[in-house]
Amino acid sequence: MKKLLIIGAGTAGTMMLNKLYKKMSRKEWEFTIVDKDELHYYQPGFLFIPFGVYAPEDVVKPKRNFIPSDVKFIVDEVEMIDGEHNRVKLSNGDVITYDLLIIATGTVPVPEETPGLKDELWYKDIFDFYTFEGSTALFHKLKNWEGGKLVINISESIIKCPVAPLEFAFLADAYFTEKGIRDKVDISYVTPMAGAFTKPKATAMLSNLLKEKGITVIPDFYIERVDNQEKKIISYDAKEVPFDLLVSIPVNMGSEMVENSNMGDEDDLNFIPTDKETLQSKAYDNIFVIGDATNVPTSKAGAVAHFEAEILEENILSYIKGKPLTAKFDGHANCFIETGFGKATLIDFNYDTEPLPGKFPVPFIGPMGLLKVTRVNHYGKLMFKWIYWHMLLTGKTLPVSTHMSMAGKELVN
Amino acid sequence: MAQLEVNTFMIDVNDEGYFTDPSQWTSEIAKELADREGISLTDKHYEVLEFLRAKHHEGVPLSIRKVGKSGIVDIKQFYALFPGGPLKVSSKIAGIPKPVSCV
Description:
Structural class of chain A: alpha/beta
Largest interface: A-B, 23 and 19 residues
Number of helices of chain A: 7
CATH superfamily of the largest domain in chain A: FAD/NAD(P)-binding domain
Largest sheet of chain B: 2 strands, antiparallel
Distance between the termini of chain B: 25 Å
Oligomer: heterodimer
Number of strands of chain A: 24
Largest sheet of chain A: 5 strands, parallel
CATH architecture of the largest domain in chain A: 3-Layer(bba) Sandwich
């Protein structure tokens, strides 16, 4: 029996497992998946928890529910990968060998990277919302908060779900408006990037939206540290922004296992050098990488992992037959952006094409507006939770094209 | 495509002033471009510029953090050498395209 090992049973790892389980011969291959956590979190739901839209229990299910019963599921942390000898070491000391390895260990916020961030004000006046603990703690904080300076700060330019901080700003504006205290809350959006977003057309549209909602953007602010006494964030070039409530998006890093295995890239962010088209690791032919764990130049998001999974399935099936890897990932990313008050916008892009306005065709549901704020987009976003649990994780093919399509997009200048 | 005249050389640039052909770069041109930004180049500046050019040539995406891990300067020193937006300013002087974020 040959051995397929998947490290990480999050969105990407679970999807790959279920896709390959259906396609690879189980007489020839033994399947094992390892994860340090028994619970699967619907991460897009974390955004809604602080505002009471989702309750904590809405976003969590046991991982085992999504893993076929005859697949070996090991709950433990991988300490390191020994790519030369095709084996991994677990933290309990066990060693597992593999013929084919898929790394899907994702990325996590690491507040410890920024001095003063995880300090005396942590979960008192400073919160993250990309974790279950953070979003839940922030829900309790917001419930009783009477207003002041709300600062949303992004620590580093490579972060998971890069639109979520914007969505947080829009939802906060709506939340405080509905609570009747919007005039007592000063919202600023402090980012290391040159604007609200990176690509010109989406930035123009989103900047207007921020302006309309009275949210101040402070660009080119690269945080160095947090001053807990004076309650301000300080940039490397000594700019200061005071806060009463800081919602931080900490530095995002790949798994520590990547560092232990000496497999990361030179940013020291523990993202794994990966071929951006085939998703094969650059270091070893029998190691493939998917989702947030890679260093491929596109967004770190579940939708991206989904499009990657379609490509990787094809390439792995070719690889085990000794055929060339012909499926090519184009960097396709697609996401709804909640804009508050029951509306949302939608962007669709890839390595070469920036988000463009127009219509995004979806079978049965009808076209959704790209770079337009609509109610239908908001329902699309909410419906996605059902799709995630019932179709995405179980490896079903969704009715959207894997490669980005130009259909419906407007080529404006 | 726009062109920029530097010391009688004509450089191809985009509408934000970034080189579209990094091979047109020389250290004299860098000096002139830096002067226009109000920066007088030292050896340390040149080390950073060479690092950026080498990474660009290898096709490695650049970030402030990466320069901070280069062993040449830390992030604070990088800001001190190229005030404002250090990566944007230094990339322009290094004759490479404007660094793009992935998202």
